[in-house]
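Researcher: Go.
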Amino acid sequence: MSFLPTWLSTARRRLPVALATALLAAGTGVAEAAPESTAAATPDLPRYDVTLRADTDGTHWTGQERVSFRNASEQPLREVYLRLWGNGVDGCGTSGSPSPVAVSRVRGGTAGSLDVDCTALRVTLPTPLERGRRTAVSFDVSLTVPGRNERFGSEGAFRFLGNALPVLAVHDAAGPHLDPYVATGESFYTVAGDFQVTLDHPSTLRVPATGRTSSGPGAPGRTRTHSVAHHVRDFAWAAGPFRTAEETTPGGVRVRSYWSPDTPAEGVRLGRQEGAAAVDRFGEEFGDYPYGELDLVMTPEFGGGMEYPGLVLLGTTEEGNAVVHEVAHQWWYGIVGNDEYGAPWLDESFAQYANYRFYGVDTVDCWDPDDWPDEDAALTSSMSYWSQQPNWYHLIYTSGPCALFDLERTLGSATMARVMKRYAADHWYGISTTADFKKTAQSMTDKDLTSFWESHRIR
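Model: Structure:
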């Protein structure tokens, strides 16, 4: 499965930045201030408005999605791509078993044919969108949750809808990012945007979701769960007859826990306790958690864990789960974004570094300079490399945090703390690169870190 492996799962102030600009009202022809860089990631400042209706058990969801966006680049934007990541495992399907995610009746542009194993849909805009202007496309969407136990999948009566909603692909100086889906790791890469999602479902189903959620009555026997999420990179939800509990951390974050009745009680207790402690601790270390609410979804058979903004999916045993690692992802990829296909270490190694710190793992001498598949391998290699070396992908989770602890010992713990907070602040709601991190670290010390990067394969 393509999230934190089970064997790793038990290794135990809101910042004022320009990128936190609120979304302006959508609509073609509304001019907004444009960024300076010609390489700016676009479409920028997307807003997703979604309404979906579920069948009796949450397997099928149908409705409409509208996404508005701005062109942040200096060049006219002639097309956008929707990523249908929910088709990643099944591809284009077969005549008897179609793809789980289907888009139809596209308005505001002309849909092309599906590409990249039916995970990318090109939409040509009716007229080129000039720099700083907004427009919108809308479409009908149909989601069929696969029967297998995965991030977009099922476990008994419970449904997981991770990476199910179509989202905009990033377009920058390299062109549109249309990387393939990978089963080991992630391919996901989006800019932060706003979501307003209404989910109409049977009242027998509890529906945890990204964002601040509220529920009210719908048609007889049905409930409408409404969620608003600002500055997030994706939207996920689950559905099922969950048991629930709610608490507010000392730091003011509302933590809602959802678990299946057969989830071990001690594991649920540990998950709730550690999840609440982690969100406050990482807020102190990296910058306050900005979303107000965090949902923990726990079942016994889900493999490892998977993170989404404001929601994490957790396989849970009597010994607990990967909640601390997954909560750390709220910062590393969620708030501080990166290209997960191009530089997976920036989210996974950083989340595991935070996880090791939380549990006080002894990392002295844990870096092994010889435990690498070949001389070309780098901690900073892309998923293109790691997908060809799946037996070595664990290095992202093991050698990655060890390298960051070695950097901490090189700089000193106080300096490393400032590096992490500055790096987060500088890229809050934005997109970061390995070069950005190296630049931040070097700026905090008089030591030349060139040899450190070389010896730790950070290229």
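Model: The radius of gyration is 21 Å.
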